[in-house]
Specification:
mainly beta, Immunoglobulin-like, 5-stranded mixed beta sheet, single chain, 13-stranded mixed beta sheet
């Protein structure tokens, strides 16, 4: 039997006044005026001390957030008790003003569109501006902002012409948050199938607008010390690792995004996040018996059953029928099923005629899991799925 073809892949500063316990010596010079002071400043107390300062912005943190606003931001600098902040020309809600600490806490206002805006500090009739001080990203709550897959291929069966080697691959790319559903890539509804044959009219074309991060961008994910590094593929517009080793893949694990460093920081900021991708546990395909020494025979309306490991979020089934010449795929059927242990391929799943003589049919059963991590700058979700795939084959009958 032909060997399987690879899948596409705040520090407080103390001020000492020399005070001794149980004495008030030193308090007078620390907090009261001298006879020489004149009331020359603009505040209401009777002194000439520099109570009022010229406003100044040193930095704001964080300096990015979603267009929905409501993000708590700290402005570091100098200002007076009357300070206010404008972000992109819109007044921000103040949470607290702490002039002595040099911290002003505010909530970002809602923005009409994504982009970089100025932060302006108003205090005592004067202003300070931090040009391009804050970047708004399109609000993505409830929408994917990252799409991809981490997949391990467990090739079973002793009937291959060459001894196949298990392998893994991974890819992902950031997008402007948009509707996307991995299940619909395979079938129009759960517990259904689609075909790449022209007679099957089903198609799924999500409107995804990927960011171009630029050559030299880097990323890494980690699960309990198992690290997978990625490089940016300019031609594909995605982070790729097409050779995930067995020692890097962990079944039944949660990977965090520990590095995301785009070389083009105008597109997407650097960030990290937890729960970036989850992988299912390993499992066994029981029907058909693709793990034996002889490839089983299957009919057009075959049954598929699997067991072992904790339940996943769903199952993807891929059936690839070889052409008569045995040098290409004649038809590929893709199914999306619930992880309930079994699935019957519908009789109309294959659009071409079923072979009258034995033909190789590659069978891939993939349990998948969805992550629940949130991308910090736009509140979007990770749609990077983890897949554990059992890959075998059969002959048609």
């Amino acid at each position: 039997m032909r060997t399987p073809w690879p899948l596409l892949p705040s520090v407080l500063v103390g001020c000492g006044f020399g005070l001794q316990p149980n004495t008030t010596d030193g308090l007078a010079w620390a907090f009261t005026d001298t006879a020489a002071d004149a009331d020359t400043d603009a505040d209401t107390d009777a002194d000439a001390d520099a109570d009022l300062v010229e406003p100044q912005i040193d930095s704001v943190d964080p300096d990015r957030g979603s267009t929905d606003g409501g993000l708590e931001v700290t402005l570091y600098g100098q200002f007076n008790e009357d300070a206010s902040v404008r972000v992109g020309g819109v007044e921000a809600e103040i949470k607290s003003i702490q002039p002595i600490r040099g911290e002003l806490h505010f909530y970002t206002p809602e923005a009409g569109e994504a982009g970089t805006v100025n932060v302006v500090l108003d205090s005592n009739g004067e202003t300070a501006k931090l040009s391009d001080g804050f970047t708004y990203y399109a609000e993505g709550a409830g929408l994917p902002g990252m799409v991809g897959s981490l997949q391990w291929i467990d090739i079973v069966g002793d009937y291959w012409s060459d001894t196949p080697i298990d392998y893994g691959f991974a890819y992902f790319f950031p997008i402007i948050p948009a509707a996307f559903d991995w299940g619909l890539v395979f079938a129009p509804t759960i517990d259904d199938c689609s075909s790449d044959d022209p007679d099957d009219t089903y198609s799924y074309s999500p409107s995804l607008l990927p960011y171009d991060l630029g050559s030299g961008s880097r990323a890494s994910i980690d699960a309990a010390g198992k690290t997978i590094d990625f490089t940016w593929d300019n031609s594909g517009g995605q982070f790729v690792n097409d050779n995930v080793a067995a020692g890097e893949f962990a079944a039944g694990a949660t990977y965090d995004l520990t590095e995301f460093d785009p070389s083009n920081t105008d597109e997407v900021p650097s960030f990290t996040m937890t729960d970036f991708v989850r992988t299912p546990a390993s499992f066994t395909v029981n029907v058909p018996n693709i793990s034996g020494g002889t490839a089983p025979q299957v009919s057009r309306t075959m049954s598929i059953a699997w067991s072992g490991g904790a339940a996943a979020d769903g199952v993807f089934i891929t059936l690839r029928l070889m052409n008569p010449a045995g040098d290409a795929w004649q038809e590929t059927v893709s199914c999306w099923a619930a992880d309930d242990g079994e699935f019957n391929i519908p009789s109309d799943a294959f659009k071409t005629s079923w072979p009258s003589s034995p033909r190789q049919l590659d069978i891939l059963i993939s349990r998948f899991k969805l992550a629940s991590g949130t991308i910090p700058h736009d509140s979007s979700d990770s749609a990077v799925i983890g897949q554990y795939t059992v890959y075998g084959a059969a002959f048609t009958k």
